[in-house]
Design brief:
The protein is an alpha/beta fold. It has a single domain, classed as Rossmann fold. It contains 10 helices and 6 strands, in the order αβαβαβααβαββαααα. The protein has a 6-stranded mixed sheet, sandwiched between helices. β1, α2 (35-50) and β2 form a beta-alpha-beta unit. The protein has helices at residues 3-18, 35-50, 71-79, 91-98, 105-122, 134-148, 176-182, 200-214, 218-227, 237-245; strands at 26-30, 56-63, 83-88, 127-129, 157-160, 165-168.
């Protein structure tokens, strides 16, 4: 099975397993210009052509610098009959020059999501799809475990009460090796973020890569532990508190 078919198959599995798409949905795909988000936009458009659920797909890019050239994506979207919008912003100026954030990713992500969700609402969308992959589930878990001391990761679906938007992640079963393979026909825009490749997430990704060298199946085991509740064997804090009180 080639990369594109594998992507569609794994995406369809996530959509069916978690009931991510329903009839009448209008889905805004957050498009950064990287391989994962563009692969998701392409895959959802393809899926909409044969899915039993009838839904619309819109691509939205939040430009952090106000002047990035996204014409390649605009032309590609037009050729593939995909509605596409660019929202200009000064996020990079705020994060790096005004706020001078030492750990910029959190604030940048929060600002970008806010703009993306607002534009989605403006366009009449009820869902926002993000291109988080199988590896992102693992790295987010690692970030929460090591830097926050808690067990948490991204979810297939999250409802945002303030905007009435449901965030979906149809790529959570999709390995990045497949999106890399699909990038040869996508209009990839190279990241210009000053913090690119120098983040805590990148550190976790490097740790996982080192682990996989010695334990080839490590990623599969971590993902399985995250997604299989029957395998949880953690402290029951309520039970411990009740015992202490006795």
């Amino acid at each position: 099975m080639d990369n594109n078919k594998k992507i569609l198959s794994l995406m369809r599995k996530a959509i069916n397993d978690f009931n991510l798409i329903k009839d009448g949905d209008k889905i805004a795909v957050g498009v950064s210009g990287g391989k994962d988000s563009l692969s998701l936009l392409w895959a959802l458009k393809q899926y909409s052509l044969f899915s039993k659920e009838k839904f619309d797909v819109v691509g939205i890019t939040v430009d952090n610098k106000q002047n990035t050239d996204f014409s390649k994506i605009e032309n590609w979207a037009k050729q593939n009959e995909i509605e596409y919008h660019i929202v200009r912003s000064d996020i990079e100026e705020v994060v790096f020059n005004i706020r001078k954030e030492k750990n910029p990713c959190s604030l940048c992500s929060k600002l970008r999501r806010g703009i993306l969700n607002s534009k989605a609402v403006e366009l009449g969308c009820n869902k926002v799809a993000l291109g988080h992959t199988y590896e992102d589930v693992i790295s987010t878990f690692g970030l929460s475990l090591i830097y926050e001391g808690r067990l948490s990761t991204i979810l297939p679906e999250t409802y945002l009460t303030q905007t009435n938007i449901t965030v979906i992640r149809p790529f959570i079963f999709v390995n990045e090796s497949y999106t890399k393979g699909a990038s040869n026909f996508l209009p990839i825009i190279k990241s210009t973020c000053p913090a690119d490749k120098h983040t805590k997430r990148e550190f976790i990704n490097d740790l996982v890569k080192k682990l996989v060298k010695d334990v080839p199946f490590a990623k599969d085991r971590i993902f399985s532990a995250i997604t299989s509740p029957d395998r949880y064997n953690l402290f029951d804090t309520k039970n411990l508190e009740d015992k202490r009180k006795k």
